[in-house]
From TrEMBL:
Protein name (Swiss-Prot/TrEMBL): Pyridine nucleotide-disulfide oxidoreductase
CC terms in the record's Gene Ontology section: cytoplasm
Alphabetic keyword roster: FAD, Flavoprotein, Oxidoreductase
Entry's transmembrane regions: none
FAD/NAD(P)-binding domain mapped to chain residues: 2-297
Ranges where the Reductase C-terminal domain occurs: 316-408
Organism the protein comes from: Paraburkholderia acidiphila
Gene Ontology MF annotations: oxidoreductase activity, acting on NAD(P)H
Listed cofactors: FAD
Amino acid sequence: MAIVGAGHVGGRAAQTLREAGWRGRIALIGSEPHLPYERPPLSKALLTGERSAAQCGLRSLEAWLEDNVEHIVATVQAIDPVARTLRFGDGATMAYEALLLATGGHARRLTIPGASLAGVLSLRTLDDAAAIGPRLALGSRVVVVGGGFIGLEVAASARSRGCDVTLIEGAARLMGRAVPAVIAARAHALHERNGVCILVNCAPQAIERLSDGTLDVLLENGDTLRADTVIVGIGIEPADGLARAAGIEVERGIVVDEELATSARGVYAAGDVAVFPSRFGSHRIRQETWHNAETQARVAAHNMLGAHDAYRELPWFWSDQYDHQLQVAGEPALGKSSVVRTIAGDAEIHFELGSDHRLVGASGFGPASALAKEMKLARMLVERGASIAPQQLPDALANPEVKLKSLL
């Protein structure tokens, strides 16, 4: 069995193959020298110093050795799906019985003058975090480009380290269509209360390096921001080039069916790079989340061994910012109407209903201590939305006197 991509998905799939009884060779191939690790801590606990790089590991070195997983640090140059072989940069080849593409994605780069200057960094890998961490010193001036989840988490981490932080976002509000506008506004206010200067409808035009090593970020409106470090968080590009070159169907990522099988026999894809069928309709989606990586890895591994398990997990992710947490379950963007539920501790959940009055998503925001239990129930409601009578749904969801658990 071969797995290309030695991140969270690749590592969990290799572990699952052993747990499922596979005793043959497992080749886990990745370009990074690190053993598989989880990405969520990179923008949070790792930058704040609350967690070390070793503590981000998916499993211990001993566990990988015990499972006899062969970790190969190399770059695969080509796939031959007919011959079922991989070709490496040095010309060597490897045969596979089944192949999992867990290639993830690459951080998007700015395409403006000065984007490659020293001190202009992005955050995607452990090495990226290792480069950024030491620069978040007390009083350091940090400009974050991008008001999505990574940008906001980095901004919160930098503020906790005492940095002077300015965040710029090209759109009119933070987090795009990922969350309701009201929640985006609350997150905006939270960051400003914690000392982040946020500029929306604002994009960088160029970056210049001064003689003292500092950076000037020139904005499209003519203003200039002085920075010691610029951190770019504008999303990722799915790493689907290897699949495309092999003739495997690609569409903003590697297209898979409900069993996570690609258009090539014996080849599967999972994680950030996979475009898979939505449970809410005929469209396809791609998810860049811990939950997606964790759950798709296990389904893909079982199917590599001959199972025909369908991936039907509900999309879900969270983002920790200061003492607040944001959670999104389902696909809120599909909603045609909304119901807002206010809960204790200044937290709220926005339920999104489709045209058939079924729940298609829930977005929660507030202090983590107040949100966690209610949002867990909200996730379950979205999961089982069809079981709730439509005529009772809006009032029941909005009324805090009605226990969400009772609706299950």
